[in-house]
Amino acid sequence: MYLGGQSIGWVECRDVNAELHVVENSNQLIRYLRACDNLILTNYSEFRWYRGSSSRVQRIERGRVFFPFYRYP
Length: 73
Description:
Layout: E1 2-3, E2 6-7, E3 10-13, H1 20-23, H2 27-35, E4 38-42, E5 46-51, E6 56-61, E7 64-65
Parallel strand pairs: 3-4
Antiparallel strand pairs: 1-2, 4-5, 5-6, 6-7
């Protein structure tokens, strides 16, 4: 994702049938989380948003918010 020509985050898209709780424990995603401080992981029906190296801030599944939404200035 870019804003004003600068990278502001990354999106990792997986197969529709992918189980994100399995993906988020994979070596690949752990490397991404270490390298990116703003990452969205999705299988197109569930979205997991990570801020910082490993903390999940918000999880949205088919329109329902599971964690409080954090507003950034």
